[in-house]
Specification:
With 752 residues, this protein is of the alpha+beta class. The protein folds into 6 domains: 34 residues, no CATH class; 91 residues, no CATH class; 149 residues, 3-Layer(aba) Sandwich (Rossmann fold); 102 residues, Sandwich (Immunoglobulin-like); 225 residues, Rossmann fold; 97 residues, Macroglobulin (MG2) domain (Immunoglobulin-like), CATH 2.60.40.1930. The chain is 23% helix and 38% strand. A hairpin with an 8-residue loop joins strand 31 and strand 32. Helix 1 runs antiparallel to helix 2, helix 2 runs antiparallel to helix 17 and helix 8 crosses helix 14. The longest helix is centred in the N-terminal third of the chain and has 22 residues. The chain is flat.
Length: 752
């Protein structure tokens, strides 16, 4: 930026926009102006510059020689003018032949960006000494200093609870603090990802410091490249409150079992107070009724009970803590848990052609499922490992078969015939994992159950896996812990596997060396005539667990995938064309309820063009939600309850004017909110976050120093531009003008 001071008598301000010059006058004798931040870097040619200079000299010399003597003779001035015109014309022609390009540099000042994150979780609705935290936040956001900040920075606003969402300041001011969960660390990381590539100078976090989900914000702040300025809202002293911290019991129990239940009660600021805890179930049985004596300012106690699982179905357990005079909130004095009671465990028989890591890891994954009992039969030369026997009673009791590298050419034919008969005739669910020793000829006995055609295989290739089509068996519980493309390579036979028309290809594979060429289906799922099959055509899939062991969610991928496939394979397969469910049975107040529907035609093929409407009701209040199609017959929608209580839902699907089917169900929304577990302000956490990131902590009652100390460096952005001059019409018109002028002067001088 260039500036100059000169004398003058001009006052006020004049803008010469056409020239990019701004003139200002601060006194009668001072004048200053600023030139735009633009600089010409030079001109480049398509040939060496030295050659252009030499030819330019030659052109000038040629013009001088041509007009050194003329016929008829003319005056010296006319002769020199003609030589100059000719030289200039030749130089323009030469200039254009060399294809010149003009380079210029544009400089501009870029203000740093400030990410403003405002806590909208339910703890911000707490009143401290009669003052609601949310009102303090909104008064802070209405201050004029934010407008002053915009003069030297760009502001991006986000509202956050358990996640961050970009939201204009007006929307934040109009919203209420009712989000479930506080996750400040992931919130600022999400905001940073949303502004990736932009010049972020600071993060301003307005919150009470509560954190009940996500990573530790103090540790995450250490890795922040941007200083985090925190503004603390609320009271840090312990508030008088009692709550039910948790109900611990099994999600699944079996008929006839005595199931233990543990209820954890927490209290603060209640020294000397008395309370009472009751535990009841949906069958009106009182499982626990015990008085409580709160000792000390901090109190925690776990009480134990049990119930008899004597009826198959769902049983709701509800813990109720009597309210105590003067406590902060009573919404956290009631919590529920739903237990699913099954008749018995499912019997899963695993047969393998030989010991292998795939067998070991699959057994471990199946063993984590409390609804199944696994019996493994691993072949050796002399029978099965451990001397086990594949007797008829075991095979006939199987609710699901898992075949790993099986059958092989050495497989016991009598055992294989019995297994194949149960798969083909009885339609027992099948989980199939390929292997290097699988016999295509022996597998022909269950060809009707396999969702692929298999050619004779040679040595397997090292392959990578990619996403395929969606299927409710995988997607109904939400996304997996990793994408298929992130998984380590496995083994597969490229070009030897072909999916059958009725199968859904959930994942594909390709040779690691030629990933652009398709290699075949990796995971196929089929559900024809109530016969369910999930088949991995690749092997060495144990690497999906080992290869991701160092990542936060990596260990969960393999076991989660196995659990989802097993649950789908063992699920009842009644011919129901419309199935509507919720992702949970019990929700906290304000927590989104995820509605899911599966729609099938009369032939049990997924329908993607149906209209699905679900009506959620509580007493006389109803709300209708239209579910969105997600592909492969799966539909999803979301409902947020504004009140607690028991809810029912019913829905139907329509396609081409016909009602395909209906379904209904129920769920519970309780007043309990994660935010009530610890409602005090945590200024110590906010101070550590600011200290670890290079920022500073401020109190919401004294935020003035924030606007003074917020360091926002201005960065100069340089961008280089190129303009091709050789194809500009202006030079052609100048050349024509010069040649025309030369011709006119020669004509008037009597020259040819």
């Amino acid at each position: 930026m260039a500036s100059r001071t000169a004398g003058g008598t001009t006052s006020g301000q004049t803008a010469l926009a056409d020239y990019g010059i701004t003139i200002t006058s601060s006194s009668l004798f001072e004048l200053s102006y600023t030139l735009p931040l633009l600089a010409v870097r030079g001109v480049t040619f398509g040939a060496p510059t030295l050659l252009f200079v030499l030819l330019s000299i030659a052109c000038i010399a040629l013009a001088v020689i041509v007009y050194r003597q003329t016929l008829p003779p003319v005056g010296t001035l006319r002769r020199r003018s003609l030589a100059a015109i000719r030289a200039l014309a030749l130089l323009i022609v030469l200039f254009l032949i060399f294809e010149p390009v003009l380079l210029w540099l544009d400089r501009r000042d870029q203000h740093a960006q400030v990410l403003l994150l405002v806590d909208r979780s339910a703890s911000m609705a707490v009143a401290d000494n009669g003052v609601v935290r949310d009102s303090v936040v909104k008064n802070l956001l209405r201050r004029s200093e934010w407008q002053d900040l915009l003069k030297r920075a760009s502001l991006r606003e986000f509202a956050f609870g358990d996640s961050a969402v970009s939201s204009p300041l007006d929307s934040i001011l109009a919203s209420s603090a009712d989000l479930v969960g506080s996750n400040p660390a992931d919130a600022w990381l999400e905001a940073a990802r949303a502004t990736a590539g932009e010049d972020v100078g600071a993060i301003v976090l307005i919150t009470d410091g509560a954190q009940n989900s996500g990573p530790n914000p103090e540790r995450v702040a250490v890795e922040s490249d941007v200083p985090i300025y925190t503004i603390g809202v609320g009271d840090t002293t312990l508030r008088r409150d009692a709550l039910i911290a948790d109900i611990l019991t099994n999600d699944i129990a079996y008929k006839g079992a005595q199931v233990p239940v543990r209820v954890r009660v927490r209290g603060q600021g209640l020294s000397g107070a008395n309370g009472r805890l009751r535990l009841v179930d949906s069958r009106s049985r009182t499982l626990l009724d015990e008085p409580l004596k709160f000792d000390g300012s901090l109190y925690e106690k776990t009480l134990e009970a049990s119930f008899q699982a004597d009826v198959e179905g769902e049983l709701r357990l509800t813990a109720i803590l009597d309210s105590i005079p003067g406590e902060l909130a009573t919404e956290n004095n009631r919590r529920s848990r739903v237990v699913r009671i099954l008749d018995s465990k499912y019997n899963v028989v695993l047969l393998a052609g030989a010991p292998s890591p795939d067998v070991t890891f699959l057994m471990q994954a199946l063993g984590q499922d409390t609804t199944v009992a696994v019996t493994a039969l691993v072949e050796t030369r002399n029978g099965f490992v451990g001397g086990k026997s594949a007797n008829a009673e075991l095979l006939n009791s199987a609710d699901m078969f898992a075949l790993v590298n099986y059958p092989t050419s050495a497989t016991n034919r009598q055992v294989w015939d019995a297994v194949a008969a149960r798969l083909v005739s009885d339609g027992v669910p099948l989980l199939w994992v390929s292997g290097s020793a699988v016999s295509p000829s022996a597998s022909e006995k269950i060809d009707d159950r396999l969702p692929f055609d298999m050619a004779p295989q040679s040595l397997a290739d090292r392959v990578i896996v990619r996403d395929g089509a969606s299927h409710s068996a995988i997607s109904a519980r939400g996304p997996l812990a990793a994408n298929w493309a992130q998984l380590p390579p496995v083994s597969g036979a490229v070009g030897k596997i072909t999916a059958k028309p009725a199968a859904t290809v959930v994942a594909t594979f390709a040779n690691e060396l030629t990933p652009e060429l398709p290699g075949g289906p990796a995971l196929l799922i089929s559900d024809m005539n109530r016969r369910r099959t999930a088949a991995f055509t690749v092997h060495d899939i144990y690497r999906w667990a080992l290869g991701r062991a160092k990542e936060s969610a990596g260990n969960d991928f393999y076991s989660d995938l196995t659990a989802r496939l097993t649950a789908w394979l063992l699920a009842p397969t009644e011919e129901k064309q419309v199935k509507i469910t919720t992702d949970k049975k019990v929700y906290s107040s304000g927590e989104p309820v995820r509605l899911q529907a599966q729609v099938y035609g009369a032939d049990l093929q997924p329908l993607d063009d149906a209209g699905v409407l679900v009506t959620v009701a509580q007493n006389e209040q109803t709300e209708t939600i239209a579910l969105r199609a997600k592909g492969n017959g799966l539909y999803e929608g979301q409902f947020t309850a504004t009140t607690a209580g028991d809810f029912t839902y019913g829905g139907f699907a329509v396609a081409r004017g016909d009602t395909i089917g209906k379904d209904r169900g129920a769920f519970v929304v309780e007043s309990f909110n994660l935010e009530w577990l610890d409602s005090r302000a945590r200024f110590d956490v906010l101070q550590a976050v600011s200290r670890n990131s290079g920022g500073q902590f401020f109190s919401a009652n004294q935020p003035d120093s924030l606007f003074e100390k917020l360091a926002l460096p201005t960065r100069v952005i340089e961008s280089q531009h190129e303009i091709s001059l050789w194809n500009r019409p202006l030079f052609l018109w100048i050349l024509i003008g010069l040649l025309g002028l030369e011709w006119l002067l020669r004509k008037r001088s009597g020259m040819l």
